Amino acid sequence: MNIQSIRNEADYKTALAIVSPWFDHEPEAGTEDAARFDILVTLIQAYEEKHYPMLPPDPIDAIKFRMEQSA
To answer: Which of 29, 35, 36, 55 is most deeply packed, by most CB within 10 A?
Structure first.
């Protein structure tokens, strides 16, 4: 299994392209593909948390959004 760390946007896009087909048909547990999928998803998540942080919403905006969703 040849897995490398995600250091830049090109590595990130490559990792996404590799795991993308597995989101529709996740590999069978216990297989090498399943291990590769788990590792790549973990690396992608770490990269996204560092480079694309999700800030908490403004409380007022969150309340407005929830009100719109229930209408």
So the answer is: 36
